[in-house]
Design a protein that fits this description.
- The mean pLDDT is 96.
- Helix 4 packs across helix 6 and helix 5 packs across helix 6.
- The longest helix is centred in the last third of the chain and has 17 residues, at 154-170.
- By secondary structure, the protein is α/β, with parallel strands linked by helices.
- The chain has six helices and six strands.
- The chain has one domain: Ribonuclease H-like superfamily/Ribonuclease H (Nucleotidyltransferase, domain 5, 2-Layer Sandwich), CATH 3.30.420.10.
- It is globular, with a radius of gyration of 16 Å.
- The protein has a six-stranded mixed beta sheet with strand order 3-2-1-4-5-6, sandwiched between helices.
Length: 186
Amino acid sequence: MEARNPLEQRYIVFDVETPNYYNDRMSAIGVEIVDGGKIAEEFYTLIDPETFFDPFNIRLTGISPSTVRNAPTFPEVWKKLEPIFSSGLLVAHNASFDVRVLAHCLTDYHIDWKDTAYYACTVCMGRKAYPELPNHKLDTMCSHLDIPLYHHQAQSDSRACALLLLDYMAAGFDPYKFKKKRSMLI
C-alpha cells in the first residue's frame, strides 16, 4: 500500500455557530477547503435556524433573529455544502461539537447524507503538537501561533482552524492518524 502524503489530501475545515443552548441548529457556518497543503477555497454564510435564539448565544456570536432574517435555511445551504463535505476529511476544533450539530441539522430536516462521517479534531492534534500549553482552546492556540482570530465568528474560527491544521501538518502530523467516526443518524 502506498503511503499517503497528508499535504496532498483534501480537508473540509468548518466551524458552526448555534442560536441556542440546544446546539442542534446552525446560525452560521464557515468552511475552509484545504487542498494540496494550502487553503484553496472558503465559504461562509449566515443560516436562518428556524428556531429561537437565547441571549447567551446572541452575546457570544453577535447573531440574532434580525441578523438572519433574510438568510437561507439549512436545507438551502446544504445543497451547496453537500458536495464539499463529501469531498474530504472533515476537520474542526473541538470537532465532536461541530459534527454533532451537523448531524442534528441533517436529522431535523430529514436530509439523507451518509450514515457515518469521518472527522479529525485540531484540539487533539494540538495536544500532541504543543503539549506544553496550559490548554488547547482555539484562542489559546491562535495566540501561541500568532493566528488572527475573531472568536465565535464562524468565518474567522474556520480559517484559524485551517491554519492550525496546516501548522500541524507542516510539523509532520497526519490528520488521518487522528481520524474518528460518528454516526450521522440521531
